[in-house]
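Ops channel
N.P.: pipeline sanity check, posting one input/output pair.
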């Protein structure tokens, strides 16, 4: 299409923010990356989205742009302390906007956010209560291609 700027995705809400045609609360801006507050404020105070100014649909589409974006997300993470730094690729992985974005979510003890890989608190019901899973414990699975300790 003549005159189409390939840096922007047609109909992409993050591209609209980058171009200045949609509102956003900008937290920080670098030459090629923007950090904004999520609509609705995010899941914790201080939650930000870090996104490249160039349209890249997800983290795998352009490793160079992804690395630059992660570099700036890491700078913000260093400033906030304990946090989750998360991106998703694809709808099955909960990506809802097809423009690379990295969530920096500040955390504090007792904030109530439970991630799927976070172990639920264990309750002890007796001397033989299960204390979680890990190597040598029931429920632990080794991934294919991972090394096992050498036998002696």
């Amino acid at each position: 299409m003549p005159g189409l700027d390939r840096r922007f995705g047609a109909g992409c809400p993050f591209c609209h923010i980058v171009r200045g045609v949609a509102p956003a609360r900008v937290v920080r801006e670098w030459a090629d990356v923007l950090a904004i507050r999520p609509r609705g404020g995010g899941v914790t105070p201080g939650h930000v989205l870090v996104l490249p100014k160039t349209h890249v649909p997800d983290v795998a589409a352009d490793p160079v742009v992804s690395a630059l974006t992660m570099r700036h997300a890491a700078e913000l993470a260093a400033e906030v302390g304990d946090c989750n730094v998360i991106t998703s690729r694809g709808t099955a992985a909960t990506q809802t906007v097809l423009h690379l974005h990295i969530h920096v979510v500040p955390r504090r003890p007792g904030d109530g956010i439970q991630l799927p890989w976070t172990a639920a608190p264990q309750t002890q019901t007796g001397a033989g209560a299960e204390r979680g899973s890990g190597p040598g414990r029931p429920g632990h699975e080794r991934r294919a291609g991972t090394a096992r300790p050498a036998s002696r």
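N.P.: looks fine end to end. The two ends are 66 Å apart (CA to CA).
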